[in-house]
Amino acid sequence: MTSSSPRITISESDYARLSGLAEATAKSNSSVAEYLMSELDRATIKPDRLVKPTTVKMGSTLTYETDHGESRTVTLVFPVDADISLGKISILTPIGAALIGLRVGQSIIWTTPTGDKHRLTITATSTEQETPVQAAQ
């Protein structure tokens, strides 16, 4: 496992909403808000239309594989929509903040609340916001 972080891309709209969310929660959830801000600071920000469909965005359903070979499919959501029993992971969790902006094939090391480090590799993505457009075609 390496400690280097992969390059990430975040859409302008996600950047604006997530920056505000991180600032608003900095006092109550400081460690995750700080981590999210550090991810936003290192991201390349692009117009929404230029962010590839293989990039994890807010609302993306993605599949990742752990360093133990386990595969899991989750949806990255805002805290109000989080429900771990439905696979909806909040952006304001360490794993949620680690996933934003990654592309299929990229890996990241994230630290669990107990301090363990794990490698996650993105194997697939789809975005819920794209579904109505696809259905209309």
UniProtKB/TrEMBL annotation:
<feature type="domain" description="Regulator of nucleoside diphosphate kinase N-terminal">
    <location>
        <begin position="6"/>
        <end position="45"/>
    </location>
</feature>
<dbReference type="Pfam" id="PF01272">
    <property type="entry name" value="GreA_GreB"/>
</dbReference>
<dbReference type="InterPro" id="IPR036953">
    <property type="entry name" value="GreA/GreB_C_sf"/>
</dbReference>
<dbReference type="InterPro" id="IPR001437">
    <property type="entry name" value="Tscrpt_elong_fac_GreA/B_C"/>
</dbReference>
<feature type="domain" description="Transcription elongation factor GreA/GreB C-terminal">
    <location>
        <begin position="54"/>
        <end position="124"/>
    </location>
</feature>
<dbReference type="InterPro" id="IPR029462">
    <property type="entry name" value="Rnk_N"/>
</dbReference>
<dbReference type="Pfam" id="PF14760">
    <property type="entry name" value="Rnk_N"/>
</dbReference>
<dbReference type="GO" id="GO:0016301">
    <property type="term" value="F:kinase activity"/>
</dbReference>
<dbReference type="InterPro" id="IPR023459">
    <property type="entry name" value="Tscrpt_elong_fac_GreA/B_fam"/>
</dbReference>
<protein>
    <submittedName>
        <fullName>Nucleoside diphosphate kinase regulator</fullName>
    </submittedName>
</protein>
<keyword id="KW-0418">Kinase</keyword>
<keyword id="KW-0808">Transferase</keyword>
